[in-house]
Amino acid sequence: MSPSRFHLEHSSREISEWIGYFQLEPRGEERADIRIGSVVAAIYNVNRGKDTEPVSATEVALKFEHPDSEDEPSDDDIRNLERQLMAWAESHNASRAGR
Questions:
Q1: Residue ranges making up the domain that contains 89
Q2: How far apart are CA 50 and CA 1, in angstroms?
Q3: Helical (H) or strand (E) element with 7
Q4: Which of 32, 34, 53, 72 has its CB surrounded by the most CB atoms within 10 Å?
Q5: Which residues contact 89 (CB under 8 A, 6 or more apart)?
Q6: 85 phi, psi to nearest 5 deg
Q7: What is the pLDDT along the chain (99 residues), one digit of tens a residue?
């Protein structure tokens, strides 16, 4: 589905709810990395020595950073993005209400 079609078929409220849901319940590759990390941790922990500390799934999960990425976004960056998203949502809803 193209982004244009997606925006025609879904309200900004629905999109906002999905954004919130995905922040609470990660999906995609990040979730898959944690899932495989739990398998790796289980295998490691079953076979570790008595004097070796166990590992957790998040410790052994793959972690990737975008090669061009800088530090984590600042609180100001996040607030600015939220303002832009809300402005888009208001504009989107207004355009849909006029139909």
A1: 3-97
A2: 53
A3: helix 3-9
A4: 34
A5: 12, 13, 15, 16
A6: -65, -45
A7: 788 888 888 888 888 888 888 777 767 777 888 889 999 999 999 999 999 999 999 888 877 766 565 667 778 888 888 888 888 788 777 777 766
